[in-house]
Design a protein that fits this description.
Distance between the termini: 36 Å
Mean pLDDT: 77
CATH architecture of the largest domain: 3-Layer(bba) Sandwich
CATH topology of the largest domain: FAD/NAD(P)-binding domain
Structural class: alpha/beta
Strand content: 15-25%
Number of helices: 17
Length: 534
């Protein structure tokens, strides 16, 4: 059945960055509107840079978006999908750069093929049916332990899937290590997520002392609340914040204390950071990647915002972490001094400041830093005592006295040692913002499989790339028959485009580093799915 003109709106990037130049989009728009398929056409000038609010009027409509692989890699498609409050069945993307501009010569030829491609894609979108809404059993709640960034992200992602969620509120996540860049960029981020959780109809926030004990139930877990009443949950998500150990030197600050000083208006008034500030990394224990990144961002912030003289002492500069080399270069240009030191440092607190003596690894000469205004030594992050106690009540294993998953498992989906209990965010390890958001997506897949094993959708079988193993050899890009494998601009590894991938498994089979797996197609999940179908 042919759809009416009112059914679909179309947004098209004008591909100004392409060498073949700008088309006659006025003529193209008129042709599309005459096709009786599209009601509205929006031409975006360099969609990857600035939309200028041109898409705001498309909220609630079916939207076809013609763009390029970069728009998916950079997350603009996902942001547009969320901003327009669309359902999955109402949003469709097509790569007009690769399939049209790169393929055809001559503007007239490009325009004709672009028109046909958009009409064909529009017909696909017009016929798409809404996905089933009853994949999750509505009478089964999920319990999220943790109201930090990872816990709130996981809860909101589950609520978006119409899964009722209770959140156990835990202590001050906004100052947890690993999130400084988010705090400085978005000061009200945590409070904004909390407000969104309070407004969500399917989310309830509980105080930390609300749950007393847990027993296994027929459909999941039964908690006895403080008042004596019982609540059954189909699954539990363990997503507590982590806390930082003390700096290890009397008078020195760890990152958590530094964040509190940065956020204190009183500290700004007193000019506490006008003197020389020294960061010591890899002191006694190696500094983890996200903490390393946070320390450098804090140093840059103090240098630029408070005109502080900053030195960073370190043993291992792991600048191979995505984005860290650029940050490292920015800090040097801002006047921050980096000193690589040998194994030991002599640190003395004179009362008015610290004196630090060590050996410069590059010159083999001794250096002395006197009367520092502040000394910052990041501490190792661990699960809080409250989180440990809750984990013990669930009989969850704590590996290496820190994490709820073993080292060999923490990058895989969120299973714990107990069926029905999943681990997310900081409980798995120090994770940056992007990793936490990806983890929330993975959690939805795992949880949906738990509550309704036969309810998995085909689109969820997407290749997952292990960032530690991928060497960006581009084998997957060469062998993919659909052109779905591209370079992740941020992490410099391979990545699958969801809009193009058909989950054929060729990339996983041909990857020489065995860095690619197909999500939800592991042996255990296949067996679980077959049992559910049987």
């Amino acid at each position: 059945m042919k759809m009416g003109r009112q059914s679909i709106a179309i947004a098209i990037c004008d591909q100004q960055c392409h060498s073949k130049g700008r088309l006659d989009y006025r003529n193209l728009s008129e042709r599309l509107l005459k096709s009786s398929l599209f009601k509205e056409v929006v031409i975006l000038e360099k969609a990857c840079r600035d939309r200028n609010g041109k898409l705001d009027g498309l909220k609630g409509k079916k939207v076809l978006f013609g763009g390029c692989p970069f728009l998916e890699e950079s997350g603009l498609y996902e942001k547009t999908f969320q901003d327009l409050c669309l359902k999955k069945a109402d949003f469709f993307t097509v790569d007009i750069k690769t399939e049209i501009f790169d393929l055809y010569e001559g503007k007239e030829n490009i325009e004709e093929n672009l028109y046909r491609k958009l009409v064909a894609s529009g017909n696909i979108l017009a016929r798409r049916e809404p996905f089933e809404e009853d994949i999750i059993k509505p009478d089964q709640k999920a319990l999220v332990y943790g109201s930090g960034f990872s816990g709130l992200k996981a809860a909101l992602r589950l609520a978006a899937e119409s899964i009722p969620v209770d959140i156990v509120e835990t202590h001050g996540a906004s100052l947890s290590p690993g999130y400084l860049s988010m705090i400085l960029a978005e000061p009200g981020m945590i409070t904004g997520l909390l407000e969104a959780a309070r407004k969500a109809e399917t989310i309830t926030l509980l105080p930390q002392k609300a749950l007393k004990e847990v027993t296994p139930g027929e459909g999941g877990f039964i908690f006895r609340k403080a008042g004596g009443e019982k609540q059954e949950y189909g699954t539990i998500i363990f997503a507590p914040e982590r806390e930082e150990r003390p700096a290890g030197e009397i008078g020195a600050l760890n990152l958590t204390q530094l964040y509190a000083r940065i956020g204190s208006q009183e500290a700004l008034k007193t000019g506490a950071w006008k003197g020389e500030t020294v960061f010591i990394l890899d002191h006694k224990t190696e500094t983890g990647p996200e903490i390393f990144s946070d320390a450098i961002k804090a140093a840059e912030y103090l240098r630029k915002m408070h005109c502080a003289e900053v030195k960073i002492l370190l043993r291992n500069a792991r600048v191979s972490i995505p984005g860290l080399q650029e940050l490292y270069d920015d800090c040097r240009q801002a006047g921050i001094i980096f000193i690589k030191y040998e194994d030991s440092l002599y640190i003395k607190n004179s009362g008015s400041g610290f004196a630090i003596t060590g050996v410069d690894l590059q010159t083999s000469g001794q250096f002395i830093i006197k009367d520092t205004a502040g000394l910052i030594i990041p501490g190792k992050t661990i699960l809080s005592p409250q989180a440990r106690e809750f984990a013990r009540s669930l009989n969850l294993r704590i590996y290496n006295d820190d994490y709820s998953q073993s080292d060999s498992l923490w990058r895989l989906p969120n299973e714990s040692n107990r069926p029905g209990i999943f681990v997310a965010g900081a409980a798995k390890g120090n994770m940056d913002k992007r990793a936490v958001e990806e983890d929330a997506e993975s959690l939805v897949f795992s949880l949906r499989q738990r509550l309704s094993p036969a309810g998995l959708r085909v689109e969820e079988y997407i290749p997952q790339v292990d960032k530690d193993k991928c060497a960006l050899c581009m084998t997957c890009m060469r062998v993919c028959p659909f052109g779905a494998m591209v370079k992740d601009a941020l992490y410099r590894v391979a990545k699958a485009l969801k809009s193009t991938c058909r989950a054929c498994g060729t990339c996983a089979a041909e990857c020489p580093a065995k860095a690619i797996r197909i999500r939800n197609l592991e042996y255990e999940s296949l067996i679980s799915g077959m049992r559910a179908l049987a």
